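Batch job 17 of 40 flagged for manual review because the log was empty.
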Amino acid sequence: MKYCVVYGSPRKRNTYRAVQVLKERLEALGEAEFTELFLPRDMPAPCAGCFACFEKGEEKCPHFEYVGRAERAMLEADGLIFATPVYVLEMSGQMKSFLDHFGYLFMPHRPRSGMFRKAAAVVSTTAGAGTRYAMKGIARSLSFWGVGRIYRCGVTMFAGSWDEMPQKRREKYERALRKTADRLYRSLQRKDDPSWKVKGLFFIMKYAVFHAAENPLDQGYWREQGWVGGGKPWKQSKGK
């Protein structure tokens, strides 16, 4: 099984430690290969807001060197893992900047059929509060990409570092992370269909593409995929 991990911070501290628990469990469940993206190293520039990806194609993005590489890594993986520390009750700025670059993957534009067959884990750590807020924004983007199943695990340490947590609290969150890994792995093994929420979004956005928006690039893409005539992305072969 292949996994793509996106870290919302370059520091290998609390969030990194949490992901290592997840990875260790996935490796215990079956053969696992990980591609890791660290932010901001692997997406060093913020989205320019130039609309080039929407109007001319994602390859016209001024940062496509990084965007294209990250998209390929995610599409080649079976499962996705997004991990962020909490910064002022939200995901890190680096993670938000990363997601901003992939607006063109949203369902009203040019979602990839391969995303609909993926499952994802979203992990967040904090010394105090905010994991729910941080994970919600990431999960929202993944849903609009079409990611079929999304599992969340927030770690509220009430401590300055992983090792400073009381043993019982640390063991509690290690169990929660392993459980999240189990759910991610089982979903991928079963090849679960997307949730009804994701399926519903797809049909709503199909209407929007052809009745609300007037973007020839998006409309042409949907026709090429065969979705206009009743095709469904989660029924297509793996790939773009």
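Reviewer: the log was empty due to a logging misconfiguration, but the result itself is present. The chain has one domain: 2-235. Unflagging and moving on to job 18.
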